[in-house]
Write a structure and sequence with these properties.
Elements: H1 5-19, H2 23-53, H3 57-60, H4 62-90, H5 104-125
Helix pairs in contact: 1-2, 4-5
């Protein structure tokens, strides 16, 4: 479900209907609302384009960084930590159990996978840019 500019204008017009009874004034308010929302959308698109074009991974790579962080956390939780404990026990040591990550990690994983699935759906429908 997507919430676009037309949806925002429709919601804004419901509010305007209650406060502006004059049809002419209402039309002016709708035009002003539409222009304001379109200029905000254009400004955000410009910021996104500049951010994505930046050569620095710290600017253009914040979205991938979330994915890398999620992958590293999963690797730690389900691969590195158990291997560390297993190797220690095999060597005759009793290593302390490393701290576990809480269930919030799964929420992040499912969110990242869901977004990836939506991107794949966009590509299949031919609407990806």
């Amino acid at each position: 479900m997507s919430f676009g500019i037309d949806d925002a204008i429709a919601a804004g017009m419901k509010v305007l209907d209650k406060f502006i009874p004059d049809p002419e004034a209402k039309a002016k308010a709708e035009t002003a609302l539409r222009d304001s929302l379109l200029s905000w959308d254009k400004a955000q698109s410009d910021v996104n384009a500049v951010e994505a074009a930046n050569a620095s991974v710290f600017v253009s790579g914040w979205r991938p960084f979330i994915g890398w962080t999620c992958g590293l956390a999963l690797a730690y939780q389900f691969v590195l930590s158990p291997i560390f404990v297993w190797v220690g026990l095999c060597a005759g040591f009793h290593p302390p159990v490393p701290p576990k990550l809480d269930d919030t990690l799964w929420q992040l994983v499912f969110a990242m996978l869901g977004m990836g699935g939506l991107r794949t759906l966009e590509k299949l429908k031919g609407v990806a840019r």
